[in-house]
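Quick one:
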Amino acid sequence: MKKLLAKEFRLCMVPMVPLFYLFVLMLLIPSYPYSVAGFFCCNAVFYVFSQAQMNNDLTFTAMLPVSKADVVRGRVRFVVLIQLGMIVLLLAMLLVRRLLYPIANPAGCDPCLTLLFGVFVTFLVFNAIYLPAYYKTPHRAPKHFLMATIAVFAWIVVFEGAFIAAGAAQDAVPLFGWIETYLDCIPTFTGAWIAQIAAACVGASVYAVGTWIVCKCSIARFERVDL
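Output:
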């Protein structure tokens, strides 16, 4: 598997990946739905698959002395590393934003650890739709990306919209008030830190388990493909 990962880095890593990483700078924009930054990492993953498809990488890798299952596992692990790289950069940018101007975000989730929950789920939604579909019909990759993009933005609307609604109705709905106090804020007390760390951990756990299931599903589909 290490050799397959090395192959992915050498043959499939495209310049678009570090370029799209720069979208973490969106956290410096006042009043913006910051979870959109996660979509651009998904876009980078699509460019990886597109470059690999142009180079006929799928057939090349399948001809190596590895199983079809390992072909999928190698690419999925490569995707996970790309996405975790974005998470690390987001963490760093959250710190920078906190130091520069720790103010609330009226356009959605505040620049805080709760944002990581939204981004983890964004990655999972993309993986769950794009990867199994790709490994069933690789030649329809653009169509699969379009469907995954629609689903990702539907999730972003729900995620960011929930915090906008919580901010608007926090005095009328006790649950919204709790969300605004503990989850949708720049944490300044222990309770908020605990709630937001827990939210980020839940997001990470859902992402890990979900992507593992997605990998299994993708393997099952790819094994039925006649290359």
